[in-house]
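User: Before I run my own analysis I want an independent prediction to cross-check against. Here's the chain; please return only the structure tokens and, at the end, one sentence I can use as a sanity check.
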Amino acid sequence: MHGIGNDFVMVDAIRQDLSGLDLPELSRTTNDRRFGIGGDGLILALPGDDAPFRMRMFNPDGSESEMCGNGVRCFAAFVRTEGLTDSHSIAVETGAGLLNLDSLPDGRVRVDMGLARLTRGEIGMAGAPDESWIEQPIEIDGHALTATAVSMGNPHLVIFVDDVASVPLADWGPRLERHPEFPNRVNVHFVQAMSREHLVQRTWERGAGATLACGTGACASAVAGHLTGRSDARVRISLPGGDLEIEIAPDRRVHMTGPARHVFSGEIDV
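Assistant: Structure tokens:
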């Protein structure tokens, strides 16, 4: 499945027992685009403890991610397609907490992404845990950049630039991903404000590299734009794979709306 080009290998781990498998290795194998299926992540649908479902997501390098915005929309469509539920509204346990997903009549999925978190401790940054990191300087190759850190259950570094197309993403992205401020690494987003209602984003995703989209990153970019006065509380974010709609409530609760598409189904020997 894919959500605006962010593609995933989705596995029913409710009716299939995966307990004997090395899940990080399974992710590395299945996400390999030459020797496996190919994808930006492996997502497992599991039974939840306090909700009907639980989602686990592994990056192509085998590391486990707390959450994935495009992946969780695919999750909502997947459990309905697989006949695991017929409900249009479901609750899903994730590494970022309990999320509520609504499948809309037009095929899109609206996700209550929870509260945006702004302190170093919540983001997983080095330094004083109660401090925030908004509009702070960060330098790379002599370029003085200004960045804001946000957690949407996983860590994000948002950098606004005048021309997002000119950013050397493949060079700057991996180096910022491993910046000392972020001991557990970070998702990196370069964003251009086209207007107060429209942002354009390019992403270097932690553990995956350059991706066509990042849902939690779009939420973080919307929050950073709103916090710094660049954009409104409701904004359209254009990523290489397509657009997402993000809404920010006064209490910093974020809702994301976007598509989820089934591409093909099959089996793989492991």
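Sanity check: The mean pLDDT is 96.
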